[in-house]
Amino acid sequence: MVAADEIPPWGDEDGEVLISAIEHFAYCPRQCGLIHLEQVFEENLFTIRSRIVHEMVDTGDETVRPGVRIARSVPVWSDRLGLYGIADLVEFRDEGPYPVEYKPGRRHGEGPDRQLCAQAMCLEEMLGVAVPRGAIYYAGPRRRHEVEFTAELRARTVETIEGVRRLLRTARLPEPANDERCPNCSLSDPCMPGVVADRSRLRGLQGSLFRPLELGEEDA
After folding, report:
1. Backbone phi, then psi, for 135, in 5-degree steps?
2. DSSP single-letter state for residue 109
3. Which alpha helices (H) appear in the chain, and where do they start and end?
């Protein structure tokens, strides 16, 4: 496992990574490839909920409460990690920046934690201050889950960033997961996990697609 402070500066030839791709890759590398390589996107109940949640927070204005300045839709980037994106909300507290990411539903998996950790590492580089923790607001239970940016989480985040960068560099779509993640994925139809993962079925469909036309079928 590579520590976050051991990664060398990325090169221009490697390409930048969009921070939102980190969660996509952590959830399913093929989903990440469909979105960021093939520009495929389809709506389902979960993406609609996500859009509504972000419309509520991504207003672009700033508010102030005692001891805390709140900035929304904050552009963040890291030259060292080759990252860029938008932080939903950053609370500028007396002790330092505190990023907050908004998600629909309930907590599942570590992908959102890595996405938030990437935002924190960007803020650290941009502002020259430590960002030890942040939070993810889950709209389902309407509560925050605080995330501590440990050395282990930072290392896993860096590994995910490099995984996304390898995917973008090779431009090869990963194999489908074809597991319990697929039914809730908005890209299940264009991904076709059950077909692509079943090689014999895929060959049969390809054979039907490219079989010679019978007499009269040209006019059908």
Report:
1. -150, 155
2. S
3. 20-27, 29-36, 45-57, 111-127, 151-170, 188-191, 193-196, 199-209
What single DSSP character describes residue 3? -
Q: Which of 110, 122, 107 is nearest to 18 (CA)?
A: 122
68-78 vs 62-65, strand pairing mode: antiparallel
pLDDT, tens digit, for every residue of 136-160? 999 888 899 999 999 999 999 999 9
Size (the chain), residues: 220
Q: What is the CATH number of the domain that holds 130?
A: 3.90.320.10
pLDDT in tens, 41-84: 766 656 666 666 666 666 656 677 788 999 999 999 999 999 99
- Give a yes or no: residue 135 inside a domain: yes
Domain that holds residue 115: 12-174
Q: How far apart are CA 2 and CA 6, in angstroms?
A: 7
Q: Is the pTM of this model over 0.90?
A: no
